[in-house]
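Let's practice the habit of predicting before peeking. Look at the sequence and jot down your guess about where helices and strands might fall. Then scroll down.
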Amino acid sequence: MPKPLRKDAQRNRDLLVEAARGLYSVRGLDVALEEIAKTAGVSIGTLYNHFPQRADLVNAVFADRTETVVSIADHALGLDDPWAGLTHFVTRICELQAADRGYNELASARLPQVEEHERGYALMTRIVERAKESGALRADFTLEDMAFVTWGIARTVEATADVRPEVWRRHLALLFDGMRAPAAHPLPEPPLLPDELAGLMGNCD
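Done guessing? Here is the structure:
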């Protein structure tokens, strides 16, 4: 179990996370670490003491999103209509992406922030399977295909944010129509395998 931080050390860590959260939200994940330290009012050495790698800081900033996504998934499974549950889950994730540039960039490199959270992964799997069992979602849709949805919307959000910040909703509606069972046609390629997707996400980090 990690040793609790001293009060001043915990304060510095909290200041760094808050500063990074604000800067990432507006400008994305490439903000210089020196600027984050300056905004937090601490030295760059203090930043590295708490977060030796940039990924450590990114993970700390977005740690709460895992529970947010799990909560969204829980709500989606509580809806009587499985298709409504699926579209609610995906739409809410995309709204998180659209509201936060840093999270949007993170979403473009991985599945909604549950791929390392056992319960969240199970919930998302159930959302997809329930929609297929109801006959609403095309039978050949896999959980790995969800990555194409979040990656695609991430790029749309990035490209249109300064011109039409809500136009990603049109893109998502088009994707939903393509996911419906009645409109399904045979796909030209098999889905990604879980280990293939994991490798791709690792390459995007």
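How did you do? The chain is about 70% helix and 0% strand.
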